[in-house]
Amino acid sequence: MTMKKTTLLGLGALLLVIGLSSIVFTSPGEKAMTDTQHAEIATLASGCFWCTESDLEKVPGVLKVVSGYAGGEEKNPTYEQVSSGMTGHREAVQVYFDPTQVSYREIIDHYWKYFDPTDDSGSFGDRGFHYTSTIFYHSDEQREAAEASKKALDESERLGGLVVTPVLPFTTFYAAEDYHQNYSRTCPIRYKTYRKFSGRDSYVKETWGDEAKIKSKGATPQPCPLPGTYVRPEDGTIKDSLTPLQYKVTQENGTERPFDNEFWDNKRDGIYVDVVTGEPLFSSKDKFESGTGWPSFTRPIQKESIIENKDSTLGMVRTEVRSKAGDSHLGHLFDDGPQPTGQRYCINSASLRFIAKEDLKDEGYGEFMKLFE
Description:
By secondary structure, this protein is α+β, with helices and mostly antiparallel strands. The chain has helices at about 50-55, 80-85, 105-110, 140-155, 185, 190-200, 200-210, 235-240, 245-250; strands spanning about 5, 5-10, 40-45, 60-70, 90-95, 120-125, 125, 135, 165-170, 175, 270-275, 280-285, 285-290, 295, 305-310, 320-325, 330-335, 345, 350-355.
């Protein structure tokens, strides 16, 4: 699920649970995991394991969720091997849960709500066998509960098609690499960007609405700090702090009118930062008159502050530009700019805040004075 521009590369454990005759292989990362010797386990595949893990760990009674590879014969597979589609493994998760708080049947009933179980060739933007869904049962009781849940979903006709997710006996599960574990928390911006553009969230909202919402258990672990001090605020805070136009542009991928925006003709020295987070994005030193009516730049201050995605709206293929820390829609990138880069970052004024050179130190951006020396 690593994203490069707009290509969605699909991406998309372990302790032996007492009382289960499961073959489970552990990774070094397992040593740091919490004690689950009295838990029961469910092994489930539904496409991207980042997303499956994030959705199911919110279920009350779930102790932890581990991302990994299930059902294949390749021993200790790597992500690259599984992604080739040649190992027989699927991206999957193992869900450790307290049976006194939540039943296996309830886990399965939740499981159906976060992917499309009528899709037999992949999951949303991720295609291929290794992204197909499966319930791997560990006992006859689990098999019966899973099949009953599947039958009930079919009979409800909720999905507009038959559930194709197979219910298979558990064989093997290997924990994925450490960097895949807890990905929604350790790399929140990349995860949210991937998930949004995969189509998963829009499907869940349209199919299940509020029924798919689960109140998180306790305090959410804090993600690893992003570079710098630029962190995206809560959604409610963002909406309260922005003008309607700023919100439409940055949060809803809107576009402002050309020649009728704040910075298209601004010629002062300074830097332009993300209006949502304050992350430095562009310098007046790289700004040029493009004749388009929007602020245009030959390059960002730091390439790492920008995310590029494929945009196929409006009947054409373009490269969308978003801020990294804030995941704000900024504008688009074109290859018709002046040298030395030949690029034109066409950016909405509403996504930016301008900080004049003389105000950089007072605003906390003193390190960028060197751009104007």
